Amino acid sequence: MGILSPAERPVAAIDPSEPIETGVLTVDLGALAANWRQLSSAARGTECGAVVKADGYGLGQAAVMRALASAGCRTFFVANLAEGETARALAPHANIYVLDGVAPGCAPRLAAAALRPCIGSFAELEEWSATSVLLGRRLEAAIHFDTGMNRLGFAPSDAAEAAARSTGISPTLVMSHFLSAQLPDAPVNAKQISAFETARAYFPGVPASLAASSGVFLPQRPHLDLVRPGYALYGGNPTPGAANPMRRVASLIARILSVRELAAGETVGYDGVFMAQRPTRVATIGAGYADGLPVSATAAPGKAAGEAVVGGRRCPFVGRVSMDYIVLDVTDAPAQAAHRGAWVELLGDTIDVDELASRARTIGYEALTRLGRRYARRYVGG
């Protein structure tokens, strides 16, 4: 038998429905909308907004906002001007708040897009008031109080002066932000509620907002006039330590590119941080830290490795997570499931976003927002 010509060599059949990417991120917009409705119900009649910053927590701002608007959401929060302008194009009639406030020089564009900055300093208030005078109308804004985060916002002790100097604008919301709402017994929660109640009293008749995702579930029920969940909308657990009441929104699978057998004593990956202690079957998948799977998901002494699900079996990461690849120990996985071209679960029914993050010693917020742009994206349930 001679050497086959290129035309005679066997080529794997191409399924046009299969993605060319080696990872697929699926976003369930129906679950997203259901989560918003559930949070709205938990808020007991209080308006439920939505935080859609960081490209909709990494899942796509446009698709996320359309799904939430269809479900009935009318108020959105973004981080910065650019996100706000995108949001305005997507939702022409929505209330859109910009958490950065009035960044230097941004007032004209904020006003042009009818965005509401969350003002947290006298410098911002002065710039927004001056823009109101220039445009000949009182521009809308939120007044943001810092009740413990020490990040952004007026001090509660400045509430009287902030109210007095806000006469040239139109405050539409008074807000603050919990720092430990995920800990329902934390004494600081009650302190923040009290400080905020004192500050908001200087703005009679103006709606107030304090609770984000975890705040919705606090025993004090600090729902006020508007709750503004973010993480919980996207399937993250707003009640750590208890069962997750939210539906999963994001799923991630990756394709096996290669399978090989290791002898005991052979190593895997950069610096040989994993050494096989037995004959080991390993599979390389086409996803790595460039795709949002942290290097810190690598196994280390006293720390669990990241995992993938192969044929119903959890398979640990072995070796260092690299830019484009992760190697799995598939020795105990069904052979028919661990082969070149097979898909494995990184995020889904078995491994949720909080577990994925925990195994990388980070938080689910970071894990979601870092999901890479190299995945094929599929939106379902919209």
Structure write-up:
The chain is α/β, with parallel strands linked by helices and 382 residues long. It folds into two domains: 43-234, Alanine racemase (TIM Barrel, Alpha-Beta Barrel), CATH 3.20.20.10; 250-380, Lyase, Ornithine Decarboxylase, Chain A, domain 1, CATH 2.40.37. The protein has helices at 29-42, 53-57, 61-71, 81-90, 107-112, 122-135, 159-164, 187-200, 353-359, 364-369; strands at 23-28, 47-48, 50-51, 75-78, 95-98, 116-119, 140-144, 170-175, 208-209, 226-227, 250-262, 267-268, 274-275, 280-285, 307-310, 313-318, 326-329, 343-347, 376-380. α1 (29-42) packs across α3 (61-71). Residues 1-14 have low confidence and may be disordered. It contains ten helices and 19 strands.
Give a short synopsis of this structure.
The protein has about 375 residues and is of the alpha/beta class.
Structural class: alpha/beta
In percent, how much strand structure appears in the residues? 15-25%
* Computed CA radius of gyration, to the nearest angstrom: 25 Å
Mean pLDDT: 93
Order of helices and strands: EHEEHHEHEHEHEHEHEEEEEEEEEEHHE
Helix content: 10-25%
Kindly report how far apart the N and C termini lie: 55 Å
Shape: elongated
Number of DSSP strand runs: 19
CATH topology of the largest domain: TIM Barrel
CATH architectural name of the largest domain:
Alpha-Beta Barrel
Q: What is the class of the largest domain in the CATH system? A: Alpha Beta
Q: Provide a count of the helices.
A: 10
Q: Residue ranges: pLDDT <50 for 5 or more in a row?
A: 1-14
